[in-house]
Design a protein that fits this description.
The protein is of the alpha/beta class. It is built from 13 helices and 14 strands. It has helices spanning about 25-30, 55, 60-70, 100-105, 120-125, 155-160, 160-165, 170-180, 230-240, 255-265, 275-285, 295-300, 355-365, and strands at about 5, 5-10, 45-50, 75-80, 90-95, 110-115, 130-140, 145, 210-215, 245-250, 270, 285-290, 305-310, 325.
């Protein structure tokens, strides 16, 4: 233990800050010399997963295995969206900016994992000191993202060749576990329900059957996923007739559509909310119908029965953990990872509302 002016100091303790008093000192007056909650860090791990939000969420199962394999580890996570990560489960969450990159380059870690192929993320992996590195680096000669070792080759290749991506049969979470040298054992997401915020959901239906969240949006990048208002209306009507309580979910982009659906069907719609409140609203559902969106990842993380409508993505990519069903159009999709349909009309229009309704009934019992 080093001394400063004759006073013992524990910079290796997980509570120690260096710039401010640690929590045990602030709340209990403890100092390092005789601190009863001294907790030495056994290893330091950096995860670089910047975005998108959904991919950040579905990377969190790694936390469970890292804690198991490296008891006493201190985990730092660098991301563009710190608010989506479970604050209680990660020692240090940094927003990706110049200041964070600068200080990380001056530190040493036991393990660095970079799961992004963005060049700035790969460059960070190159420059941060660590004896073990996983994921993607930057080739200095040409600035191309590249696997840092053989473990990353499979996930790398499925991202650069559509043929390999189409043929892949591994879920995303399994791929990133293998990229880190782990076998996937069904580890669940690590997520915050925000139940402690005390949100008021008294406007939610309580006198009907199970609440089924309908996440009606799909984002503006892959609009080939969009399901028509007519199909949503039909599904809502079927759910209501069967005793379910549909609740419309979405953000600002879905607000107009959800207001229209509410006016046409009477389905509950509470409006738009900040992300933590939206997550907690989804937590009030007994099942969720969604496209491949951030809402899908939140639903899986909340361990809800998820009815996933998919057309343009490889269905093997998604692990619903045995809860819910994946449903696809009645004709094969020919627009793999395309934002516009080559045939003019998206095959999502060939996904009948009845098919989604049957998946809801099979996944969420109406007791």
């Amino acid at each position: 233990m080093p001394d400063l002016n004759g006073l013992p100091v524990h910079p290796d303790c997980r509570h120690f800050r260096g710039d401010l008093p640690c929590r045990p000192n602030k709340t209990n007056g403890y100092t390092c010399a005789d601190c009863p909650v001294y907790a030495p860090v056994t290893s330091r791990i950096l995860i670089i997963k910047l975005g998108a939000i959904g991919d950040v969420i579905r990377t969190t199962p790694l936390l469970r295995r890292l804690r198991q394999e490296r008891p006493g580890c201190f985990i730092t996570w660098l991301t563009l969206t710190p608010a989506i990560l479970p604050q209680h489960a990660i020692e240090e969450i940094l927003k990706f900016d110049f200041a964070s990159a600068l200080q990380l380059q001056a530190r040493e870690f036991d393990i660095v994992i970079n799961l992004d192929k963005e060049k700035e993320a790969c460059a960070l992996l190159n420059t941060i000191k660590a004896p073990e590195k996983f994921g993607y680096a930057l080739r200095p000669a040409d600035g191309v993202p590249w696997p840092v070792n053989e473990l990353a080759s499979h996930k790398y290749l499925t991202g650069v060749f559509d043929q390999l991506s189409l043929a892949n049969t591994k879920p995303y979470v399994q791929e990133i576990f293998e990229l880190c040298g782990f076998d996937f054992r069904g580890e669940e997401y690590v997520f915050d329900t925000h139940d402690d915020k005390g949100y008021d959901w008294s406007r939610l239906p309580t006198d009907a059957g199970p609440r089924i969240g309908l996440n009606t949006g799909c984002g503006d990048r892959w609009t080939t996923r969009l399901w028509s208002t007519e199909k949503w209306t039909t599904l809502i009507t079927q759910l209501q007739a069967a005793g379910y309580a549909p609740v419309l979910l979405g953000g600002e982009a879905e607000d107009a559509r959800n207001r229209e659906l509410h006016a046409a069907t009477g389905a509950a719609y509470l409006g738009t909310f900040p992300l933590p409140q939206f997550i907690n609203l989804m937590h009030q559902m007994q099942g969720i119908v969604t496209q491949v969106t951030m809402g899908m990842h939140i639903s899986i993380a909340l361990q809800k029965p998820t009815i996933l409508m998919n057309n343009i993505f490889n269905p093997h990519e998604f692990d619903l953990y045995g809860r819910g069903q994946l449903v696809q159009p009645n004709r094969p999709c020919v627009c793999f990872y395309r934002g516009t349909c080559k045939l003019g009309t998206s095959c999502m229009e060939d996904l009948p509302a009845e098919k989604v309704f049957e998946a809801v009934k099979a996944s969420v019992a109406n007791i």
